[in-house]
Known about the structure:
The protein contains three helices and no strands. By secondary structure, it is an all-alpha fold.
Amino acid sequence: xxxxxxxxxxxxxxxxxxxxxxxxxxxxxxxxxxxxxxxxxxxxxxxxxxxxxxxxxxxxxxxxxxxxxxxxxxxxxxxxxxxxxxxxxxxxxxxxxxxxxxxxxxxxxxxxx
Length: 113
C-alpha cells in the first residue's frame, strides 16, 4: 500500500548548469531528432566510453515450452507461479507477477502457496 505525494517537479535540462559532463548510456542509439534536442541544451560533443560496470548481462527470456504454461484450476495456477518464482530467484534474478485485478491477487495471497 502506498501513496504518492508530489513535492515538486522540474526538468533537470532546464537548470542551466555551467557544464554537462554526463548524459546517458544511450547516445549510440539516438536518432537525429534526439541529437538536435541535446544540441539545443548546449551539448556539442558526443563521446562514447565503455561502461565502468562492464558489458550488459541483460537477457530476455526466450519463449519456449517452459516459458508459457496453461494450468487447469486456480490451485495449479498459483502453484506454477510460485514454482517459477522460486526458480527465477534461485538463479539470482528478480521476479515480478502481475495479476488481472486485486481480487485475484488477494486469492493468491490467501492461498496455501
